[in-house]
């Protein structure tokens, strides 16, 4: 269940209300203190919800991504507009679905990698080891990933190599254009990828070429087809990360990605359903539910749904407003974002249209900030879409960014497939 903290409501009182201990609620929500703030969402063990003063059946249903009529029907309520404070209602639980989960991982060192993978063993099916990238001659960069690979197999987390178009410029569309439009370089890169997989005991490859231009749409399709023809007969998997689209060429700046053609040759397609607002642009919700919904609606009508993975933002953005009107963002973990609000004692707001939480604060220099993040309310909406559309699973960027609420709900709502 999800409880929304009211002004002046202490954690001990919430715990008593649901016959829980303070420590059990802290553990489920990753809290290190009991200094909660108004508007904060708290996961509560159990399914019996106690209605607070001023709440309606609509607000409770919306918080759990249910319809009012679903909630009323499950509880035998004839008139949803009439509810009584203190009354107890049942929050319906749906049948658990079996899904695959994946997450990108940036290797650090032996001790850190082993600890991270052991911690995430129950929650993750596959890890994308990030990253290798080609130079302008089609040669792949190196990466110290032996611990991530061996420990991944040991913990039943299937390792795949992530190949990007990163360069000193960041994600480099010119590098992608150069490689994709040269048949000999495509062949060389594909051969190098095959050697990488065989030599390092990867199960497959994930192509993360970002910023591909519309004129490179056909070359990208051809590259992925050639890559699949080379790798799949040997038992390797081929997947691709793609930006969120709601039509074949909509939005136009993502027209370089042909969902239909790519969906025919890959084993999996990872939908990067996040960063509608990012740290380099104006503030706003990172993964607004209406945009995520529209992307999934297009994707399942274009690509076999059992190939689709929904991308999950495991991070928050903190934007600073400068006095000249400019903004600049930095990233935080979801846990860091919530802790910041708690430490500062600022209330958390919730945007109903995007189903995204946010809050404002002022730093020590007097600069105003806004933080957009994800919480139990926004995550349950996305998890329900996974079940509703019947897609293969979900994945996130990246391992090591703690998000206890999402992890607890993942365990509750899904069976995680393991190799």
From TrEMBL:
GO terms for cellular component: endomembrane system. Keywords: Glycosidase, Hydrolase. Signal peptide: none annotated. Residues 1-44, 47-91 form the LysM domain. GO terms for molecular function: chitin binding; hydrolase activity, acting on glycosyl bonds; oligosaccharide binding. Residues 99-419 form the GH18 domain. GO terms for biological process: carbohydrate metabolic process. Gene3D superfamilies: 3.10.50.10, Glycosidases, LysM domain. It comes from the Bacteria. InterPro entries: CFLE_GH18, Chitinase_II/V-like_cat, Chitinase_insertion_sf, GH, Glyco_hydro18_cat, LysM, LysM_dom_sf. The keyword Hydrolase applies. This is Sporulation-specific glycosylase YdhD. It comes from Aeribacillus pallidus.
